[in-house]
Amino acid sequence: MLIIFWLSVFFIAYTYILYPLLVIFFSELKSVTNEIPVGYSELPTVAVIVAVHNGESYIQKKLKSLLSQDYPQEKISIIFSSDGSSDNTVNILESYPMISLIKAEVRQGKAAALNHAVASTDAEVIVFTDVRQRLSSNAIFQLVTRLSNENVGAVSGELLLEENGNVSSAQLGLYWRYEKMIRKAESKLHSVPGVTGALYAIYRCDYPQLNENTLLDDFEVPIAIIRKGKRVIFEPSAIAYDKVSESLAVEKKRKIRTIMGNYQSFARNPWLFSPRLNPIFWQFISHKVCRLIVPYCLLMMLFIPLFIGGPVYQGVFLLQIIFYSVAFLSKSIKSSGLLSKILSFSHVFLMMQVTVVIALYKYCAGQADAKWEQLH
Question: What is the pTM of this model?
């Protein structure tokens, strides 16, 4: 029992502290000569693909962002793929003659919308982006330039979350900055195990036809490219701007869907678990898999002290009970300043662990649905 308790402690510390430190350390040892874009003799043609379902409130701002890109406009085509939109999305898009519109009358899911859009273009490079986020004016140029390296097959942009002022929003924003720090190091070391779904670029010839019930294109596409022997890198200067949701319930729903997608992709791609076949095996296991095991290690940390006995471990049990109680009740506790931040952090941390367990249950119960909805 004692060994299991301390192994659980070490596993959690490795996942959230030791692995980030190690991947940063090893990435700093690596030569950066292959990180410098070699450039093109002539910039390639680009198709910007936006899969959308009921996105009428975002379309005009999105188009303004795309049409103001610092990239030769004659080399950019914009394709919106509407997946059974029932609002005014199609009517708005039809009023813009400069874009191509693909209309699916019945919702099939994002993967199907992407497949239809990719099949409709012969552009050399595909840039995928979501309808909700505006892009930095140099986003497409930066993504395409980084693709010019011969060994690079996909480039992920950066999602910059603009906080809305509440403390939970700030904690979610802090978590995302922590996540980006890890991705930068993984990119430098070899590849990131996934891309930012809001903004990434690939060569059209590398696009894998997605299974139409795929939940996470931003994981399935890059791992297919990694399997080909190419790298997937992170470009922080290509930015998609988004806002942290004011509702943790929305973030929870989004996170559950993402984790369900991870389970789906793991089941479809067993080669990921082979150190011989997966060139980023260590990063994949440490970043993607370990976090899905952490909630169960936390449960062992919580209950094993009851079986070990003794005042020290009983105290450890009591401290954990206090932490989880505070995390659960944090919204009803009046606080400000540092205390408010601590309470919010504990609540966000607890929410993240709960979503992992819920996502596994929903996935095993067959509740994975490729038909996505806009989450505000």
Answer: 0.88
